[in-house]
Amino acid sequence: MFANVLERADDRTWYEVHFSLFVLLEVYFIDDRFPATREFHAAIPSILRRYLMSVKHEHAQAAWNAGDSFSIRHRGADAITPHLLDAAKDARYVAGRLGALHRIRHLLAQLEKQAGDSSAILRAMRSLARGDRSPRVRRQAQKIVDGYRCY
Questions:
Q1: Residue 151: inside a domain, yes or no?
Q2: pLDDT mean over 14-18
Q3: Of 75, 98, 118, 130, which is least packed with CB atoms within 10 Å of its CB?
Q4: Is residue 150 part of a domain?
């Protein structure tokens, strides 16, 4: 059902619903009163990736919040990085690519605090900064390369 609702985008109102679902998703993972099935936990990165790959608009900051929902607090960096990089490079619309870049900034900040390896992510960001078809995405990727992080 969760994924089905995310496919609805008939008007701007659906993006408000999407944003709210992503907020509930975070609460769901934080609050132990909501026991999750393993299948649901395992499906979340794929659902978020699919959303970012196809979201057309930035209405209600839903794409941003989808990216933000890739919280490494709940999943290891190794588990979410491929999904984020796929969306940042290959999402059909700018909204999805920017949503992925938002979480990548957070991810890099976390990796740097933990002395993790961020070289593959930075290589991908350099490539986006040089070659994405959107000037907005190129600028955001360049900011990441230049050290702009979300802490």
A1: no
A2: 93
A3: 130
A4: no
Residue 18 lies in a domain: yes
**Is 20 contained in some domain?**
yes
Of 122, 128, 144, 42, residue with least CA distance to 91: 128
Nearest to 114 by CA among 57, 55, 73: 73
Task: Give the chain's mean pLDDT.
Answer: 87
Residues spanned by the domain of 18? 2-145
Provide the pLDDT for residue 116.
78
Residues 6+ apart with CB under 8 A from 89: 97, 124, 127, 128
Per-residue pLDDT reduced to its tens digit, 50-86: 999 999 999 999 999 998 887 745 567 777 889 999 9
CA atoms within 13 A on the CB side of 18: 30
DSSP state of 91: -
- Structurally, the chain folds into a number of domains equal to 1
The proportion of the chain whose per-residue pLDDT surpasses 70, expressed as a percent, equals: 89
Considering the entire predicted model, what is its pTM?
0.87
Angle at 1 between CA 90 and CA 25, to 5 degrees: 70
Cα–Cα distance for residue pair 19/31, rounded to 1 Å: 19
